[in-house]
Each structure stands twice: as C-alpha cells, then as structure tokens.
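Budget justification aside, the reviewers requested a transparent look at the raw inputs and outputs of the sequence design task funded under Objective 1. We therefore reproduce one unedited record. The lines immediately below are the structure tokens for a 455-residue chain.
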C-alpha cells in the first residue's frame, strides 16, 4: 500500500535536492548489518565520501543532479516559474524493505516522468513508514517543455504506483487522499512545528479528556481561545483561533472528530466520577497582563529584554505542574505551540540579559562588534597558519597550540553571533506578534467580564 502526491517548488532547486538526499534520512543502522553500519560510521568522517544509500537518479548523473538540471533549464532558457516538482510515495509500516521501497520508487518515477524529465529518487528511513521522495526537473531535457501539473497527473501517479505495488504483491489503498493537499503541513512538521489542524486536534483531545457533556466540551474549547464560526449545535461546527485566516471544520480533522464520534467519547466519559465537575482553563485571569505589571513594578528590565522575559514566562505556564495547579494558560493556540522552542527562547533571553541589550539598535551594535572580533581573531589565526607552513617541527607544535587557543576563543563568539542573528531575523518578530495577539485576547476577556458584571 502506498500513498502518493507531488507539488510544485518555486524556491531553490538545490535546497529541495539537498533535503531529498539528506544522508541522515537515507541511512539507518537498523536496516544495515553491523559491519556495514560501522563502515558507514567510519567513512562518514571523510568529507569526500558519499555515504548516501538509496539515492538514485534518472536521466542525470548521480554525482551532480543539480548541475544537470540547471544546464537543461539554461539550454531552453526556462529558469523562472516552478523550478521543480517534489513528489512523495509512502508505504504502510512493515510492508516493504528499504530495497523494495527504493525499487518501487524507481519504477514509479520511470513510468511517470522517465521519458521526458530528469529525476532524483531517494528512500528515507527516518520514520516507521518508509517513504520515497522524487525531485523532478520542471523542464524536459528532450523538448524543453515545462511540466504542466494537471489534476490528471496526480491520478496517473497514483494509478502507476498502485499497479507497481500489485505487481510486487503489495496491498493497495483505494480512495486515499493525495498527499499534495497537505504539502504545507508536511514542511511545517519536518521543521518540528504544528499546523493549525494539529493544534486544534491537540486542544480537542485535551477538551475531550476533561469533559463529559457536549456543552462542556464547547465551553472548554472557547476557554482555550477558539471561537465557533458555525453554530456549535450544527452537524458541521467550525472554529477559528486568533491569528488564523480560515476556520476549520471539526469533522475535517478525522473520523474521531465527527459529531457522532465526539458524543460517543463524551458518553464514555460520563462513567468517570472525576469528570462530574469540569475544571476549565481560567479565562477570567490575564497571566500576560499580570506578569507585565509585576516586571515593570520591579523595574528589572525594559524593551527587548522585557519582551523575551514575558514570553518565556508565558511559555513556562504551559509546562510542568504549574498548568495543572491553576489551569491558567495563554489563550492563543499559537503561543502554546511555541513551547517546543522554550529552550531556544531562554537562550535568546540569556544573551540579551548578559549584554544588557534593550533596543534593536543595541542588538545591531552587538552583532557588528561580535563580527569585528571574529574577523580580527580569524586574521590573527591565518597569520599563524602561514607561519606554520614555513616553521620547523619544534616551533610548529607551539604555533599549532596558539592557533588552537584562538579557535577556542572564536567558537563562543560565533555561537553568540548565531543567537543574535536568530533574535534579529526570527525570534524578535515572532515574540512581538504573539505577545500583541495575546494582549488583544486578554483585553477582550477583561471587557467581557466587565460587561457580565454590569448585567
């Protein structure tokens, strides 16, 4: 059984090839005998050795598929638009060996694109479900025609894959969804993130584990920051969360999230005495406002440092036993999802506090100063390397030790520079946007509470 799909790539052709050929995903010791695993571990230290297994090419050389594909584009003057197509073929866990998966992938690619296009085929072993990746040049090496990506092509790929699986005695899954529809979610998950649907599934599972009636379930979701955009009592209720552009229908998340499945789960929960009283996440409290007021009262920090301190404190509300004790947590699912990067944000905060960085200008100045230090030390080390080439053995050992000491001084500077770059490019905009969003939500809660008291 194999599921398939593909989607266009408009960015860097080299990036998608590098991802498909990633040696960490195309080799796995559990699929190799011990001697070969040890050999791969040994030769992996040689930068000139290609340790990638289950990586093949069609109509282009294995050692440089990127160069061959770019040559085809230049030959026909078609460098713009979609640079490639990224395909996917995933197998049922335990149904195929790596060798079988790769052979099926090669045959599938040949029948689908082999007459006209250059292709890289790799088999990734980094998950329980072995899966193939296809990178297809968007320009034909024969005619220069660009691949058109019609809906019929997706059906044709599925038909070819199913036919080859049947030929090799493998099962076929009829009516499976095309993987191309989840392409954005796939890349989000590869980077360790969660899609909006993933967040909603997580929060629905929490709500279903803590409630015993449908009304309580809906109220629990609202306490987590969701808003019902379609009547919660309809057959197809939908919700939206802050920062989302589109609502999501609950029954589109899977069979276990249909109205009937939700009611069945809640009826089962009615047998649990501990769920007779529902403990909702506290919406009357505003943890961000309280934290911000307390930090400003103590006058501990300001500017960027305050932003990161607030954000780290918010994320820590979502971890450990703190959440279980008072059930007060950030209202936005987007904030709660950032808990996975708590350690990174904590390191960012430590850098800001260590050097008392409070403004973007101070952060920029720190980056420039660090770059200058690295450049000066690198020049000093290069001078020592030049002396080593001409030095005799006794002096050469001393010079090597000096170079080593300089390298040890450069390493932490580079680490701090990477941290500063991350803050500048990604962390700071994310923290600012999510805290602004959380403030808006908390103000809405306060206004709603005040209106309720007036009534």
């Amino acid at each position: 059984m194999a599921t398939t799909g593909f989607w266009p790539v408009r960015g860097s052709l080299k990036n998608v090839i590098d991802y498909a050929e990633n040696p960490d995903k195309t080799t796995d010791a559990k699929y190799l005998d011990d001697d070969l695993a040890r050999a791969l571990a040994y030769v992996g230290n040689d930068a000139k050795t290609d340790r990638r297994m289950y990586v093949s090419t069609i109509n282009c050389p294995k050692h440089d598929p990127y160069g061959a594909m770019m040559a085809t584009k230049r030959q026909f003057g078609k460098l713009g638009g979609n640079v490639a197509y990224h395909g996917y073929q995933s197998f049922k866990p335990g149904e195929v060996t790596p060798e079988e998966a790769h052979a099926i992938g090669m045959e599938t690619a040949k029948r689908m694109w082999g007459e006209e296009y250059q292709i890289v085929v790799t088999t990734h072993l980094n998950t329980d479900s072995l899966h193939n990746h296809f990178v297809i040049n968007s320009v034909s090496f024969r005619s220069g025609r660009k691949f058109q990506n019609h809906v019929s092509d997706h059906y044709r790929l599925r038909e070819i894959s199913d036919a080859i699986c049947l030929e090799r005695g493998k099962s076929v899954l009829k009516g499976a969804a095309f993987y191309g529809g989840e392409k954005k979610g796939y890349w989000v998950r590869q980077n360790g993130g969660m899609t909006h649907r993933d967040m909603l599934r997580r929060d629905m599972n929490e709500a279903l584990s803590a409630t015993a009636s449908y009304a309580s379930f809906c109220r629990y979701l609202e306490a987590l920051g969701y808003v019902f955009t379609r009547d919660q009592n309809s057959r197809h209720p939908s919700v939206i969360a802050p920062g989302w552009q589109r609502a999501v229908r609950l029954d589109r998340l899977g069979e276990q999230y249909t109205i009937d499945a939700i009611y069945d789960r809640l009826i089962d929960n009615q047998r649990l005495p501990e769920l007779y009283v529902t403990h909702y996440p506290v919406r009357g409290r505003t943890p961000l406002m309280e934290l911000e007021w307390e930090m400003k009262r103590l006058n501990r920090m300001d500017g960027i440092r305050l932003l990161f301190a607030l954000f780290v404190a918010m994320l820590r509300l979502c971890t450990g036993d703190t959440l279980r004790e008072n059930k007060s947590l950030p209202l936005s699912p987007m904030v709660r999802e950032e808990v996975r990067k708590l350690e990174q944000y904590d390191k960012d905060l430590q850098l800001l506090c260590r050097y008392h960085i409070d403004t973007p200008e101070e952060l920029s100045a720190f980056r420039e100063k660090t770059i200058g230090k690295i450049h000066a030390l690198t020049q000093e080390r290069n001078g020592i390397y030049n002396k080593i080439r001409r030095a005799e053995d006794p002096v050469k050992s001393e010079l090597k030790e000096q170079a080593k000491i300089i390298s040890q001084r450069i390493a932490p500077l580079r680490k701090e520079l990477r941290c500063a770059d991350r803050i500048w490019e990604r962390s700071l905009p994310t923290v600012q946007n999510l805290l602004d969003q959380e403030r808006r939500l908390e103000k809405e809660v306060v206004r709603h509470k005040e209106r309720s008291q007036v009534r």
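The two ends are 60 Å apart (CA to CA). DSSP finds 17 helices and eight strands in the chain. Computational costs for records of this kind are itemized in the attached budget.
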